[in-house]
From TrEMBL:
Top-level taxon of the source organism: Eukaryota
Domain Disease resistance N-terminal, residue spans: 15-97
Entry keywords, A to Z: ATP-binding, Leucine-rich repeat, Nucleotide-binding, Plant defense, Repeat, Signal
Naturally occurring in which organism (per UniProt): Eragrostis curvula (weeping love grass)
Keyword Glycosyltransferase listed: no
GO biological processes: defense response
Domain NB-ARC: 187-351
SUPFAM superfamilies the record matches: P-loop containing nucleoside triphosphate hydrolases (SSF52540)
Region (Disordered): 151-174
Signal peptide interval: 1-19
Family to which this protein belongs: Belongs to the disease resistance NB-LRR family.
Name of the protein: AAA+ ATPase domain-containing protein
Entries under PANTHER family matching the protein: AAA+ ATPASE DOMAIN-CONTAINING PROTEIN (PTHR36766:SF36), PLANT BROAD-SPECTRUM MILDEW RESISTANCE PROTEIN RPW8 (PTHR36766)
Record carries keyword Nucleus: no
């Protein structure tokens, strides 16, 4: 049983590392990285090992040799996350740069000759370690569940991409004092009288970050329905963004939530932007963007039309699994949600 739990946790850890590597590939970091191909090798091996973990989980393996293999893989994956953490620290030490490199700490390190050699050596050693672990896995006759997982992922991703949340609050999801404290703190920040734009004349963005299912949406809903928020903002807009957002659909949803009619002017992007501006012109607005996976949903789609329409004091509250999304949106504050205390988790289970 403990092996299955560990396998599931490690699968999540491997996914985290793979997502970071995937972002690096988009940025063509392999061209910047001296040890050519090491990143690709690490990514391929991690995918295979992640699929083997899925098989170990499915088969409920309790064999001691398999447990030892899983422990070795756990150590290797922690090494991988240590590399990511090291790059994050290096990036933070260099100050709050706003270039694209800072959105991915690994990319930052690869671009910096002071760190690239050290990080490169670490990744090379990790690859050798993963090679040994993968060789040992042959003895267990694991099935690579990649194709099956991909099919399941495709079906669930099409489902999750249509996941719609709203500003309606489900009281049965609320437990403990922590959410009350977090709500009070964030409401105070959102309504505080201060300089309402950044130096770049942008609307102030606040973020709630944490892993999937930890309660980011519930906290945002609690804030959205808070009495102080109701009093302070003349318009409130709730948008489910999700992983595969579409710019046109996002604009249409924003118009509808703002009380406008997106059908009136036609469906060109320019017309939709003008309609959105008209619906919110002069209003002190709270915009909640729930489940954002890409900062471009704000930066490339909504920021420009809203910057020329919203009244001073307007705010954006984003929920995201990835703090780099919040950084990409120039969030002035990132509130991290941690796991529930044991007693609150038990209370939530009983309530549900």
């Amino acid at each position: 049983h403990s092996t299955c739990i560990m396998a599931t946790v490690l699968s999540s850890l491997a996914s985290y590392v793979l997502n970071m590597l995937a972002e690096m590939t988009k940025e063509q970091v392999t061209l910047l990285f001296g040890a050519s191909g090491q990143m690709d090798k690490m990514s391929i091996k991690l995918k295979d090992l992640k699929n083997f973990l899925a098989d170990a989980d499915r088969r409920n393996i309790t064999d001691h040799t398999v447990q030892e293999w899983v422990r070795e893989l756990k150590g290797a994956l922690y090494d991988a996350t240590n590399i990511l953490d090291l790059c994050q620290l290096k990036a933070m030490q260099r100050g709050k740069h706003r270039d694209a490199g800072c959105f991915n700490p690994l990319l930052f390190c690869m671009r910096n000759p002071l760190f690239a050699h050290d990080i490169g050596n670490r990744i090379k050693k990790l690859n050798q370690r993963l090679d040994d672990i993968k060789e040992r896995s042959a003895a267990f006759n694991f099935i690579n569940l990649g194709s099956e997982e991909d099919r399941r992922r495709n079906s669930t991703s099409s489902h999750s991409s249509k996941r719609e949340t709203s500003g309606e609050l489900n009281e049965s999801a609320l437990v403990g004092e922590k959410i009350e404290e977090d709500t009070r703190s964030l409401v105070e920040m959102l309504t505080k009288e201060e300089q309402t734009t950044t130096a770049h004349n942008k609307i102030m963005v606040f973020a709630i970050a944490g892993v999937g299912g930890i309660g980011k949406t519930t906290l945002a809903q609690k804030i959205f329905n808070d009495d102080t928020i109701q009093h302070e903002f003349t318009k409130k807009v709730w948008l489910s963004v999700n992983q595969d957002f579409n710019a046109t659909e996002l604009l249409k949803k924003a118009i509808t939530e703002a009380g406008g009619d997106y059908k009136a002017p036609g469906n060109t992007r320019g017309a939709l932007e003008r309609t959105l501006k008209k619906a919110l012109m002069g209003h002190k607005t709270l915009l909640v963007m729930d489940d954002v996976w890409d900062h471009k949903a704000w930066v490339d789609v909504l920021e420009t039309p809203l910057a020329h329409a919203l009244a001073p004091g307007s705010r954006v509250l984003v929920t995201t699994r990835n703090y780099m999304v919040a950084r990409g949106m120039n969030a002035v504050d990132i509130h991290r949600i941690d796991k529930l205390k044991d007693e609150d988790a038990w209370l939530l289970l009983k309530k549900q």
